[in-house]
Design brief:
heterodimer; A: Rna Polymerase Sigma Factor, Chain: A; Arc Repressor Mutant, subunit A; B: 482 residues; Porin; 2 domains; 19% helix; flat
Chain lengths: 179, 482
């Protein structure tokens, strides 16, 4: 079953193709959802809501760009909608102690696998996590992030710096524990 | 490899474990399926059929449609009330304007009126009574019509007839009443409560007009009949559909129109609407009318741009809008969402924004118009001018965008989408032309313009959007007056 056939079948509301779409794309989309969620339960909820949106809007999908990118974007938007916008202010004030001493990333990260990295990202405070994902993994500029999240560009920049420092700090801690 | 590259490499396309069956069982009840789709089509189909049936049923019976049919009556055997032979004027005889199949008037008013067969009356087969009917058998809504022309000379009767009135009402159910009233006023041949017409002057009435179940009093109360030939109020229903264009202008908060100068290699832009209208017209005989109804407007817009976009304000002294555009998330023409940081500019060059994007946009408006207007009747054509207000319930914008950096998404999920569901108001003006197809049915053309005096977007936006639209509709209009 090709991607084009699945899209066409879903546009006609055929259950066979709808299920095939879920089977084929849910692992990839689950990863996206997990990266934007604090835990796997929340990621599941967001993924479920995203699929409902995908099926409701697939009639309007036009084959410009990749279908996966279109679905990823819906998952990202759904995840972002469920977040609390005030987190950016809260996180700026409460984590200064943790972020005061930027240290070099320990070389130990090389042994970290995908699941461990996913855990690291999920542990990050919400505001850091969203900016970090949009910037590092999705490749958005700060202007685009500011539009997507409804924050200023400077907030986006500072959130990213703090997110990086936060990750480094966590890595240092883990390394110490490991040793 | 840096830490971030390490994360990117490991997580970019990393598949997570999902219990697909559980996920599917939760999604399936929530999503539209083929059966729902078919059901919607089915419901729409029956709604459409019901609408057509309703229109057909409510359309008043018209005298000029349907096929002519002979009633199953034997003309040869029918005895016609022939009135009285005037002994002083041999050859002159009087004929009653009652239907030959009805004896009510004759029997109630004149006991001794002689009757005659068709042959005795001089009605030959070529001038047989013709009766129109939708159904030949047993339908009580039988109608006949008058032929006032002399079958021999093909000339109109010698007495004066108000042709204007006849022409106007020729296809109306009231026709026979008007004509009879005319005859009465000219000939003054009223005998009791019966009308007598001279055959010599009103050559032969080859058929008579009225509905059989109609009360006889309607025929004789000529004064009332004349006074009701034109109703004081007429009610019409119009069904129309059409297309239009929608134009949104962006204003900075200080009121200056933001204009965008584009330096584009290629640019296509469209913004159009599909309109469906059901309208109710209540028209006074003076020509003034009130119009209301429901208008459903589906707006579709799209843009495909490649190049740079330069915002400017109309007011050269004002830099508010420019600076706002530089600092805020910038609106661009026709519902675009700008996306890229501006390239560095010299002081002589306005900020440019990379603007390679494709975007579609959908919105549905439910409009309730109330207008006042005036009809000018020019025979078969009626021109109407109207002006009023329109209350509109607007949906969220829906659609998708696709930017130069290959990001795409659903507009309904975009946090900065300026078009949100709301209740708004527009001022409308219009002109329509109605062409009479018969006495109750019109082909109607309508041109309209509307504009929003207030912004149609959120107050929180860094700019205001004001909308204007132009539309052209065509459809039918029919009278509800019986």
């Amino acid at each position: 079953m090709t991607e084009a056939e699945i899209i066409k079948g879903c546009q006609k509301g055929k259950a066979l193709y709808q299920k095939e779409l879920v089977v084929r794309y849910s692992p990839m989309l689950m990863s996206v959802s997990r990266r934007y969620s604090k835990d796997n339960e929340m990621a599941k909820d967001n993924l479920q809501e995203s699929f409902i949106k995908i099926f409701r809007h697939i009639g309007k999908y036009k084959p410009i760009g990749s279908f996966s990118a279109w679905m990823r974007r819906i998952v990202i938007n759904t995840s972002l909608q469920s977040m609390d916008k005030s987190c950016f202010k809260r996180e700026l004030s409460g984590l200064d102690e943790l972020l005061e001493q930027p240290s070099s990333p320990p070389e130990a990260y090389a042994h970290l696998g995908a699941e461990e990295l996913m855990d690291l990202i999920q542990q990050m405070p919400q505001g850091f996590r969203q900016v970090f994902n949009l910037s590092i993994l999705e490749g958005y500029s700060h202007r685009e992030i500011s539009e997507i999240l409804g924050i200023t560009e400077s907030t986006s920049r500072s959130q990213l710096v703090r997110a990086r420092n936060y990750l480094k700090k966590i890595l240092v801690k883990r390394e110490r524990i490991r040793v | 490899m840096s830490f971030e590259d390490h994360i990117r490499k490991n997580l970019k396309n990393y598949p997570s474990e999902v219990d697909v069956e559980e996920l599917w069982s939760q999604i399936e009840p929530e999503i539209p399926n083929e059966r729902d789709r078919k059901r919607r089509i089915f419901i729409f189909f029956f709604f459409f059929i019901g609408l057509i049936a309703g229109i057909t049923y409510t359309l008043p019976y018209s005298t000029n449609n349907g096929s002519e049919a002979r009633l199953p009556i034997s003309l040869e055997d029918t005895k016609y009330p022939i009135g009285v032979f005037d002994e002083n004027s041999p050859g002159v005889r009087y004929y009653t304007t009652t239907h030959p199949n009805s004896n009510t008037i004759i029997s109630s008013a004149s006991e001794n009126i002689p009757t005659a067969s068709k042959a005795e009356l001089g009605i030959d087969n070529s001038r047989a009574i013709r009766i129109k009917s939708n159904k030949e058998n047993g339908n009580p809504r039988k109608k006949a019509f008058l032929e006032f022309k002399n079958p021999n000379t093909k000339q109109l009767p010698s007495f004066p007839i108000n042709h204007e009135l006849i022409e106007k009402e020729l296809l109306e159910e009231e026709m026979e009443k008007v004509l009879i009233s005319e005859v009465i006023s000219e000939e003054e041949k009223i005998n009791g409560n019966k009308f007598w017409l001279e055959l010599e002057e009103l050559p032969m009435i080859t058929a008579l007009v009225y509905e059989i179940e109609e009360k006889e009093e309607d025929l004789v109360e000529n004064k009332e009949i004349v006074s009701t030939t034109k109703p004081k109020w007429t009610t019409q229903v119009g069904l129309q559909c059409g297309a239009g264009t929608v134009n949104d202008s962006y204003f900075s908060k200080d009121g200056n129109l933001i204009r965008y100068i584009t330096r584009l290699n290629d640019r296509t832009l469209y913004s159009r609407s599909l309109d469906f209208n059901i309208s109710l017209f209540i028209t006074h005989k003076s020509g003034f009318f009130v119009k209301s109804g429901l208008n459903i407007q589906k707006i579709k817009s799209g843009i495909n741009t490649i190049g740079l976009l330069f915002p400017q304000t109309i007011n050269s002294n004002s830099t508010t809008a420019d600076s706002q555009i530089k600092n805020e998330s910038t609106p661009s023409t026709d519902r675009q969402v700008t996306n890229n940081p501006a390239p560095s500019q010299t002081t002589n060059t306005p900020s440019g924004l990379a603007n390679n994007q494709y975007r579609t946009f959908y919105q549905t408006n439910f409009n309730l118009p109330i207008s006042l207007g005036y009809h000018i009747n020019m025979g078969k054509v009626t021109v109407g001018f109207e002006s009023g207000i329109l209350t509109n319930l607007v949906s969220n914008e829906k659609g998708s965008y696709y930017f130069h950096n290959h990001s795409m998404g659903d507009l309904s999920d975009h946090p900065l989408s300026p078009y949100k569901a709301r209740l708004g108001m527009m001022i409308t003006n219009g002109i329509h032309l109605d062409f009479a197809l018969n006495d109750n049915l019109y082909f109607s053309l309508n041109g309209n313009h509307g504009f929003s005096p207030k912004p149609i977007n959120d107050n929180d936006s860094p700019y205001h959007i004001k909308r204007s639209n132009y539309g052209f509709n065509a459809g039918i209009k029919f009278n509800l007056n019986k």
